[in-house]
Amino acid sequence: MTARVIVNRVWMHHFGQGIVRTPSDFGYQGEPPTHPELLDYLATRFMQEGWSLKKLHKWIVMSATYRQSSDASQSVLKSDPENRLFARMNRRRLDLEQMRDSVLQVAGKLDLSAVGGKSVDLWNRPFSNRRSVYGFIERQNLPGLFRTFDFASPDSTNAKRYLTTVPQQALFMMNSPFAIEHSALVASTLPTLTKDEQVKALFQRVLLRNPTPTELANCSKFVSQAQPKSVIDDWSYGQGGVNADGSVEFNPLPVFLQGHYMAGKNMPDSVVGWVQLSALGGHPGNSKKSAAIRRWTSTITGKVNVFGSISHPSELGDGIVANVVSSRKGLLGRWSVRHATVSASIQSIEVQKGDTIDFIVELNESDGYDAFFWSPDIVSVGSNGSWSSRSEFAVPSGLPPTRLALLAQTLLMSNEFMFID
User: Fold this and answer.
1) CB-based contacts of 96, cutoff 8 Å, min separation 6
2) Is 103 strand, coil or helix?
3) How does DSSP classify residue 223?
4) Tens of pLDDT, residues 312-323
5) Domain positions in the chain
6) What is the pTM of this model?
7) Predicted confidence (pLDDT) per residue in 135-180, tens digit
8) Which residue, 103, 137, 100, is CA-closest to 118?
9) Does the domain at residues 235-388 carry the CATH identifier 3.40.1620?
10) Which of 38, 75, 255, 291 is the most buried (most CB within 10 A)?
């Protein structure tokens, strides 16, 4: 029984379905094997060969059954639509780990030299190049991305992963920093050639084939179009302070790590201390000139209202000082907060397109225990425009991807790349 269960599991991982389709139930309530003699043969040979999983994998992948195409005639599809008899190969989507490793491989970043060791964060910048099998999994707090791609719950026993097709999967490949960054890496590794030659090289790298004449013509036309202008983000993140003349000195925080903008990869920074910003709040630096600054840049002309509250949760330390400063109107509000929560709402602020409103948190006198929560919302007066610092918190887009990088991203999210035939 043990050998038959193991053989069936290995077969299932290669074909998408086992010889017994209920891999955890070989009893009366489970499904009978579609090929009982095959199951018994593999189980017997598996035991005779010393229970070697390596040999078992080799037997399966070298078989004529495994080497079939997923294409099938209409008669085969009609007689066996669920492919229970394995008359063709099942077309299978890459699972989450396979997808990530494949993207890294195409981008030339997959590190196969590091074997064993500590688990790593797979999805936050700076992105690890290690294989996904070394990804850190917190059993009690599985990120939503894993569930989006049908990752099995680590909190219970699972015989197999269930397959879903939901919009969030495509949206991840369209919008995630991981997909955007590695698409740009793929494009950057292509030699400087003509547009047609670049398109051909990109198809060969991602899809391992040449483009058809129609694909080549359409993709070359797309790559030849004018590059979009730089993107201006509604929200940006920096450190600095308020000058004597009321202007704000704003220095962008250059590092984004584990959901925080920071001055450097090591905290505290040797120059500005603990200054950082997250979606919910942050921490000021070690002086009045290294305050944490969340900046909103207006894309409209009119009036806006600011809503939100500032919280300093610690009972220790001397608290923080929060400021709201408009590039057009100067200081709009100032609050000292210690172990309390205060409202920080301001009405009818005049703005023109390109104006900034800075939400500045600085230390009071000492720089200890100054963590704070402040995620303001901005709503335009008389229109439907609104901006949420919490829900719109993201890595700044800066320069948009090149046309070639956008084409690389399109190929990486195509069914041809995401599915195994």
Assistant:
1) 132, 145, 146, 149, 150, 151
2) helix
3) H
4) 999 999 999 999
5) 2-90, 91-231+398-421, 235-388
6) 0.61
7) 998 888 888 888 888 888 888 888 888 888 888 888 999 888 889 8
8) 137
9) no
10) 291
